[in-house]
Amino acid sequence: MVPQLRAIPGPDRSTSIKARESWHILGIISEFVEAAERLADIRPAVSIFGSARIPADHPAYAKTVALARLLSDAGFTVISGGGPGIMQAANQGAFAGRSPSVGLNIQLPHEQHGNAFQDISLSFRHFFPRKVAFAKYAAALVVMPGGFGTLDELTEVLTLIQTGTGRRIPIILVESAFWTGLLEWMRGTLVAQRMISPDDMDLMQVIDEPQQVVDAIFDFYEKRGFEPSAAERESMLYL
Asked: Residue 204's CB: how many other CB atoms inside 10 A?
């Protein structure tokens, strides 16, 4: 007995609503298409997450610049959110290096504005196509200190790997003093109450020094290479 859309506001109004929703869906599709076209050839790449609120004089900013430069000179495209804070630091370091600096910008009422260190710049209105782009094209994930957005992006990738939807990649948390409390809570609560498996904690590692981060990524791929396997390519089609 649920009325159809046309029966609620009147024919003209319902047609207008349907047209607007259709354009909304097409807009989302266009963001996926543009990301696929612009990012198809950037591999191998590393996505770096972190707070937009960290100023340029913060130690984590300088560390991110140094790390991104090392990654870029080692042949990795660096992907960030394109905004200020850690995102700008990542783009700044990569922009000075040998490999492309990519910014996946998001249109927000507050905080977000594009930084000037992007060789490739994409603009998203919706979070979920942007998060797919972060995960789909990255051979590794580096997570600097951050807030809700950083935690959202981290847990999104952890969920994809844990469920077998995404391929296994290195997930490296930088700044042990920042992450220790969260990891202890995961072990003491999530693992202890069987919300996750003990092995799930092995999906992440904590490293403080930029060169050690780069070395850990190369160590992970030393035997298998950076190219996704056929099975991994198949699974990534459904991200």
From this structure: 20
H helix intervals, the chain: 11-39, 59-73, 86-95, 127-136, 148-162, 176-185, 210-221, 230-236
- Domains for the chain: give ranges and CATH numbers: 18-236 (3.40.50.450)
For residues 144 and 179, give the distance between their C-alpha atoms in angstroms, rounded to a whole number: 9
Q: What sign for the dihedral angle of Cα 60, 71, 31, 204? A: negative
CA dist 114 → 129, 144, 162 (Å): 18, 19, 32
Say which amino acid occupies 29: I
| Mean pLDDT, each 10-residue run in order, the chain (239 residues) | 55 69 86 92 95 96 98 98 96 98 87 84 92 93 97 96 93 98 98 97 98 98 83 73
Q: How many angstroms separate the first and last alpha carbons of the chain? A: 36
Query: What predicted TM-score, i.e. pTM, was given to this entire model?
Result: 0.87
Q: How far apart are CA 30 and CA 60, in angstroms?
A: 35
Q: Could you identify the residue written with the tokens 């080692």?
A: 74
SS (H, E, C) 154-207: HHHHHHHHHCCCCCCCCEEECCHHHHHHHHHHHHHHHHCCCCCCHHHHHHEEEC
**Scanning the structure block, which residue is given the tokens 């959202």?**
152
